[in-house]
Amino acid sequence: MLFFLISCLSFVLLSKSLPLKPLPPWASKMRLLSPWFWKELSCFLVFWLRKSWLSGVLLEIPSAMSMRRRNFSSKVENVEESVETSVLDLPELALECILGKLPSEGLCNMAAVCSSFRDRCRSDYLWERHMKEKWGRLIGCAAYREWQWRVACRNDLGVSEGCSRKHLVKSLCCSWPLSWILSKMENSNRQKSYLPADSMMSWYLSLENGKFWFPAQVYNRENGHVGFMLSCYDAELSYDSCTDTFNARYPPHGRRNIVIEEGVQWHRLRAPPVDTPSHDLHASDCLHDLHPGDHIEIQWRRNKEFPYGWWYGVIGHLETCSGNENLCHCHASDTVILEFNQYSPGSRWRRSSVSRKNHQEEGNEADGFYGGIRKLYNKEEITMWKQLWPTEVLE
């Protein structure tokens, strides 16, 4: 093979020095492909020579070591027995437990060991745990629908990037015999590089690398702007693994363009608690169960062009009520008092009221529009709002 390579190179050098007749028209087109062809051919020949040399060395080693095997047969047998032992020889349940304890990076590394581990380490059963542990708090129904739509539109999402390079080389060398070699290599590695787009592992990796923007909600949007304190707005999120933070992309509204906030921390994020789009009125089902002191979230927007945001507040007493729990009848009134205690007592944003029986969107262009109400029963949600309480009273 070495002689063949030297002959080819000599022929190329000699052909350049000899006067030749003008080439036919098709030769100028093929000349454009020559750098790619010779580059790929040289890589293939080097790979073949290395493989041939390594196989020759491996064939010489048994003959050189034959005498030693005869003298130390018992020791060699013990070594061979230990080499033949594999992790795959473990019982199925033990192997499953070991893989279940690996982190996500460990599963990715194990999937590259062999075809058997590849199939095991890509199973949805193993990746469901990692999805719940890291992403379960942020992934809601809206994010799942977005992922299903993405999978339906891009079935090739899980194909590795290495395949694109092979397709490029194949298009450049399609007129040469080397294309036959590349086609064989591509067919042999197709199963190794393919990752189902609808698999749990593909979804996890798309979240990790930030390529998948998913819907969620952000507390105190735009870096805690005073106009959004103690609110939670819809946004599309993209994860940045280098900083362990998120980029939040808020939808445009009114005359404002898309706003992108960088460096959003985990504690300022949540999955949408209700499956209501940001421009739709939430159907309130807790109005008759509201009492003074209850913690709530209510939809509010500046005007009709803006999306709703969820704002934290509490149910207050009527002005005619003394606040005595034994004498209070506010829960029987048709008017529900809303209090937003993050604002000063004299602020026009401090108190508002809605109808208990016929509640729809209420408000005006000056004070904004109040939408649906959801009562907070979960103590974790209430604690989260209190942790975001502003350090100063708002006006």
From TrEMBL:
PROSITE patterns: FBOX (PS50181). Keywords: Signal. Residues 1-17 form the signal peptide. The keyword rRNA processing does not apply. The keyword Cell division does not apply. Residues 84-130 form the F-box domain. This is F-box domain-containing protein.
